[in-house]
Amino acid sequence: MGRVPVTGEPGTTTDAPTDTADRAGTADRAGTADRADTADSADTADSADTADPADTADPTAAEHQAPGVVAASLRWEAAAAVADEVLAVPPGPDESRMANAAFVAATVVAVVAVAMLLAPVPSGWRAAVAVAVLVLGAVLGGVGLLRGRARRRMHPAARLHEDAIIAALTSRERQAVRRAVNGRSNAPEDRASVVDAVALRRAEAGGTVYTAGAAITGTSGVVLQHDSSLLWAGAVVVWFAALVTTWWRRRLADRYLRRRGLRS
Predict the structure, then answer these.
(1) 191/166 Cα distance (integer angstroms)
(2) Residue 219, number of CB atoms within 10 A of its CB
(3) Most distant pair of Cα atoms in the chain: their distance
(4) Which of 82, 94, 128, 149 has the largest count of CB atoms under 10 Å?
């Protein structure tokens, strides 16, 4: 009867260690594969974490902004085209003295009118002063109208007023142009032509002279009638308020043009 070989006996072969080694090798290969899979997963996660945020951004974001930028450029180009027509008109003589003279004359008339309302003045003197004031106002108003009309006949582009220059711009862009003319901000160089054209229109003395004439003419009625109605006196006050506003706007525009070297 045969006997089963016992490990360690002489003359016998040992199979158990071989099986153990095979199992150990298999386990090593499995562990290595698991570690490799884990490393690959970690590398994939790291790559996902370090991805460039720009790659995941919305590619149409710039396209949504482009139409607004293009529209703004077109608006400023249209305004610049009108401004170039205004700037092409040969500059006339400096009208600062005329505008200042008209403003001073209107101020003197206003002071005289107030004095005659507060003090008792004979009716004859009152009538004479009223006629003189009326004539002065008519002359100033006529000069302002005739100068503007003559300039527009010589240069058709002179008919383009301030609102026509900035008509293509939005309300916010118009306010930016006006702030630049008033010296409250600086205009970019590529938009300076629009601001220059608006300043040239504001610096013209015709508006100031005409408004001064209208205010003086209205004052003649107050001088002539000591007990003039409040409505008439209120109208005269409105005219003088318009005169002060027009004169001050013209003065700011003149300062801007001198800073730009467009006026000496």
Answers:
(1) 11
(2) 26
(3) 168
(4) 82
